[in-house]
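The instructor's notes for this session suggest beginning with a concrete chain rather than abstract definitions. Hand out the sequence below and ask the class to guess, before any prediction is shown, which regions might be ordered.
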Amino acid sequence: MEKGFKSLEVWRLSKQLAVDTYALTSSDILKRDFGLVDQMRRAAVSVASNIAEGDERDTNKESVRFFYIAKGSAAELYTQLEIAETIYGLDAAMTSDLKASCDQIARMLRGLIKARSPKL
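After discussion, reveal the predicted structure:
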C-alpha cells in the first residue's frame, strides 16, 4: 500500500490530469501556441506538485496553504481550457473530461482543506 501523498486519491487524479493535459496540448491545433500550451502544462503540473508538497509538510497549516495553491491551479487550468476552446474552436468534447477533472479535484481539495484546517 502506498504511503503519504501517493495514497491520496486527489493526488492520483491530479497526476492523471497533468498527463491528459500534455496529451491535449500535443495536438496539432494547440502545439503552435507555445504560450498557452506552456501555461496549461504548468498549471496542470502545479496541481499534483502542490498536493504532494503540501502533504509532506510538517504542519496542517503549511499543508493547507499548498492545497489552496493546488486548488487555484486547477481553476487556472479550467480557465485556460475555456480560452483554448474559444480561440481555437475546440470541440467541447476535447476538453470536457479535463474540465470535469478540474472540478472534481477542486471539490476534493476543499474537503481536504476542511479536514486539515487548524481549528480556531
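Then share the key points. Residues 8-116 form a domain with the de novo design (two linked rop proteins) fold (CATH 1.20.1440.60). The chain has a mean pLDDT of 94.
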